[in-house]
Amino acid sequence: MAVTQLSLPSLDRIASGKVRDLFALPNDPDRLLFVASDRLSAFDVVMKNGIPNKGAILTLTSAHWFRVLAERVPGLRTHFISLDVPAGVVTADEAAALRNRTMQVRRLQVLKIEAIVRGYLTGSAWKEYQAKGTVHGLAMPAGMRLSQKFPEAIYTPSTKADLGAHDENIHPDDAWKELGDKETARQVQELSLKIYNAAASYAEERGIIIADTKFEFAKDAEGNIYLVDEVLTPDSSRFWPKESYEVGKEADSFDKQFIRNWLIREGLKGKEDVVVPDDICAVTEERYKDAFCKLTGKKFEDAIAN
Ligand code: ATP
Ligand code: MG
């Protein structure tokens, strides 16, 4: 059964996003409990039902990446502290509900930018390119085809809209207006590209192309920048199987694209209260698990047993 709402009366909920809920930890104001539900959102709308195991898949995938990136991107700071359910602050039932879907993270001030990096031409970037030859206002080589790899990965941020509103693509040179200063904007851009390039080569060795992805960053009181939120999951990224990749063709994917395509086919894009049929949920769950297994080298069922 998918869990769309967790009941955790022992903890104070401080924020709820489309997929995650953030809880304060008593006695530790510097930490948060970052809890992933099984909720599914697409086109900025949350579906009525969820995908079984999705919260655990997202959490364990993110935790895996935090460890990989700590090795591959020297000096990178991340909000990840541990996967442990904090001892002594929740009941046994709550601890069981939280298992595998929660991370203890550093509590930080999240920056108002969606730090998107694109390695391949698809999605809204493909639409803009066809209309204007640009991507987020950046000039791109002529004659590019759908799903083609960019000569090098590009940083293409968008605004971070409040719940219910849509993010807007912006030119990277305008990101500082969202962030308040040019030095922060420069660091976020540089980090985003470094992390993407490290992750893309790691994933490619394991048969997955990371076509694009979205990072979030935050600052501590001293102004240091941290990678936060979920990272490099099938929710925040387009993952394509390398074996069936072809330029000029819409790629098969391990990610939410399958649900997006179903919503479009059914005329349900952007509609509220959509119930996703069981067979579509089951395929999505399998794809998410498949991506987890390819990236981590572990079967999901074995990973949650530990
Ligand atoms: P958003 O567009 O803000 O991500 P969302 O609906 O996608 O909204 P979720 O991803 O479900 O939100 O929830 C995660 C929320 O937690 C996000 O608002 C994210 O910015 C915030 N967040 C992530 N890491 C931290 C952190 N270390 N400290 C404080 N807030 C965080
Ligand atoms: Mg989010």
Q: Can you offer a commentary on this structure?
A:
- The chain is of the alpha+beta class and 306 residues long.
- Helix content is 32%, strand content 22%.
- Strands 8, 9, 12, 13, 14 and 15 form a 6-stranded antiparallel β-sheet that branches. A 5-stranded antiparallel β-sheet has the order 1-2-3-7-6. It has a two-stranded antiparallel ribbon with strand order 4-5.
- A hairpin with a 3-residue loop joins strand 1 (13-16) and strand 2 (20-24).
- Helix 1 (54-72) runs parallel beside helix 7 (278-296).
- The longest helix has 23 residues, at 182-204.
- The two termini are 21 Å apart.
- Adenosine-5'-triphosphate binds next to strand 2, strand 7 and strand 13.
- One of its GO terms (molecular function) is phosphoribosylaminoimidazolesuccinocarboxamide synthase activity.
- Residues 14-272 form the SAICAR synthetase/ADE2 N-terminal domain.
- Its EC number is 6.3.2.6.
- It holds the Pfam family SAICAR_synt.
